Amino acid sequence: MQVYTRTGDKGQTRIIGMDVVPKDHIRVEAYGTIDELNSLVGVIISYPNIEQTVKEELQEIQQLLFDCGTDTATPHGYMDYRTKKEAIDWLEERIDAYSDIPAKIESFILPGGILEASMLHYARTVCRRAERCVVSFQNETESNPNVLKFLNRLSDYLFVVARLVNHQMDHQETFYERSGKVFR
C-alpha cells in the first residue's frame, strides 16, 4: 500500500469505494475524529498505571474504533457494516462490571486525577466530539446506526474507567462546587 497518493495535495481524499470527497467533508471529519480518538486510546494504553485487563479492553476498543471508522468511511451499501450490536453489549457489560467499584457519586466530578485518569477523561471528551460528528454525518446520509450507539457507550466506559483508575491509585476525585470557593 502506497503511503502517499497526492490526492490530498488538492484538498481531497479518496474514501472506501474510491469516491473522492473534499477533506473537510462531514464524513471525513467523522472518521477522522474517530481516528483521533483511537490514537488517544493508544497513548493511554502506554501509561504504566493502567492495569493489564483494562489495557486489553482498550486494545479491543481500538479494533472496534477502527471498525467504526471503516463503517463511517464507507458509502452505504458498498460493503457489510463491521460495527455490530455485540460490541455495544460488550461495552455495557464492562461498564456494569466497573460502575460499583469506586464510591457512588452524588454530584458532578471534575475531570482529572492521576495522569492516566485525566487522559481517560480527555479521551471521553474526544469521544463525545466524534459522536457529534457522526450525528451530523448521519443526518446527511444513511450509515451504520451502531457506530453512534458504540461511541455513546464508549464515552460512558471511558468515564467509568477513569474513575476506576483513580480509585485503584487511591486518588480522591474532585467534586464540582457551584461557582467554586473563590466567590463565596
Automatic annotation (TrEMBL):
- Gene Ontology molecular function: corrinoid adenosyltransferase activity
Q: What's the catalysed reaction? A: 2 cob(II)alamin + reduced [electron-transfer flavoprotein] + 2 ATP = 2 adenosylcob(III)alamin + 2 triphosphate + oxidized [electron-transfer flavoprotein] + 3 H(+); 2 cob(II)yrinate a,c diamide + reduced [electron-transfer flavoprotein] + 2 ATP = 2 adenosylcob(III)yrinate a,c-diamide + 2 triphosphate + oxidized [electron-transfer flavoprotein] + 3 H(+)
Superkingdom, natural source: Bacteria
Query: Keyword Transcription regulation, does the record have it?
Result: no
Domain Cobalamin adenosyltransferase-like per the UniProt entry, residue ranges: 3-164
- One Pfam match, given by its short name, reads Cob_adeno_trans
Give yes or no: UniProt keyword DNA-binding.
no
- At the top of the EC hierarchy, this enzyme's class is transferase
Q: Which PANTHER family match?
A: CORRINOID ADENOSYLTRANSFERASE (PTHR12213), CORRINOID ADENOSYLTRANSFERASE MMAB (PTHR12213:SF0)
Name listed for the protein in its UniProt record: Corrinoid adenosyltransferase
Q: Which organism is it from?
A: Facklamia lactis
